[in-house]
Write a structure and sequence with these properties.
39 strands
Length: 342
């Protein structure tokens, strides 16, 4: 499916020829007369009316199965295109996608509307029975607040956001481009749904890639003060039910975190990682992008993870290895250094 129109109304449709000019790309494949496209979409969610892109060979499998009508792609991947897909061929597919996506969604970062009374609730927003809204809070158009929620002072609930029942939102929290379940707690200063760190490099500098996914937070999640969870770039960022996230945690775009995870303070998870169910991450853990962390994995504090981790392992260190091996390395280094008590 394309980006959720509640949050990301499309400026399309655009004809294929115009998109090719924007992308500085060559059209390949049978081109129906007058072909137009309504929006951009992720490879695994696209349909015949949307444009997707492929820039990372890790996603060639999704590309081969994609239903996208058109895909921005490097020339070397064109032979893998499924039958009927039109290719926009370029040496810089990520940069080309940034320009095309910006044409479909030119104004998504200008949706704040903080003016008004105290609190300001837009007439089109709905607030459930028993919910209490703090002073200075702004609730945007078409937002839906469930019953028995508590929203602290000076919070911002953005356009179209859905908040379930029995949620607690602390002071100075901002929530944008998000769908949130029941019994969710967001402590002071949490930022949900801001754009991920996505840009493509051009000869004149970085070009921002529009971030067109949402943040989906399932039931019973608790997120600590000043944690930040970026919305997806196209796919959604997902936080599984019952997960607990500590203060000052950063979660990048497209990350999918399973159910019942524990993530301790100052941890950073780079974009497009998949974290399984019941994973425990110690403080200041860093996880590189596009990795798969299996169910039940435990990662010791201050570890750096640079490769996939199989389910059930306990690992530590930088680069992270099984914990016994990590401690053996520490002991060996201490002996080599002649430290007392080693």
């Amino acid at each position: 499916m394309p980006p959720d129109p509640r949050f990301f109304p499309s400026a399309g449709p655009f004809p294929l020829e115009e998109l090719a000019v924007l992308a500085d790309a060559e059209i390949q494949g049978g081109v129906p007369s007058g072909q137009v496209y309504s929006d951009v979409s992720a490879l695994d969610a696209a349909d015949a009316n949307t444009v997707s892109f492929l820039d990372n060979k890790a996603y060639v499998g999704q590309f081969r199965q994609s239903a996208a009508g058109c895909c921005i792609v490097d020339r070397k991947f064109v032979p893998d295109a499924p039958a009927g897909m039109i290719s926009l061929v370029t040496d810089t597919p990520y940069l080309a996608y940034a320009r095309v996506a910006a044409a479909f969604h030119p104004d998504i970062e200008n949706s704040y509307n903080p003016s008004g009374s105290d609190p300001l609730i837009h007439p089109s927003a709905s607030v459930g029975t028993g919910s209490v809204i703090g002073a200075g809070t702004v609730i945007g158009p078409n937002a839906m607040i469930g019953s028995d929620c508590r929203i602290g002072p000076n919070a911002y609930i953005g356009d179209g956001v859905i908040l379930g029942d029995h949620c607690t939102i602390g002071p100075n929290v901002s929530v944008r481009f998000a769908v949130i379940g029941n019994y969710v707690s967001l402590f002071a200063g949490v930022r949900i749904g801001e754009p991920g760190f996505g840009f493509a490099v051009s000869s004149t500098g970085a070009v921002t890639v529009p971030q067109l996914g949402r943040v989906l937070i399932e039931d019973g999640v608790e997120i600590g003060a000043n944690a930040t969870i970026d919305r997806g770039a196209g796919p959604d960022t997902v936080i599984g039910a019952g997960t607990r996230i500590d203060n000052l945690v950063q979660i990048g775009h497209n990350v999918r975190i399973g159910k019942g995870c524990i993530i301790v303070a100052q941890t950073g998870i780079a974009g497009s990682c998949k974290i399984g169910n019941g994973v425990q991450l110690g403080g200041q853990v860093g996880i590189a992008g596009h990795l798969n962390i299996g169910d039940g994995v435990r990662i010791a504090a201050q570890s750096g993870v640079h490769r996939d981790v199989e389910a059930g392992l306990t690992i530590g260190g930088t680069p992270a290895v099984p914990l016994r091996e990590h401690f053996r390395r520490i002991t060996t280094l201490a002996r080599l250094a002649g430290e007392k008590g080693s």
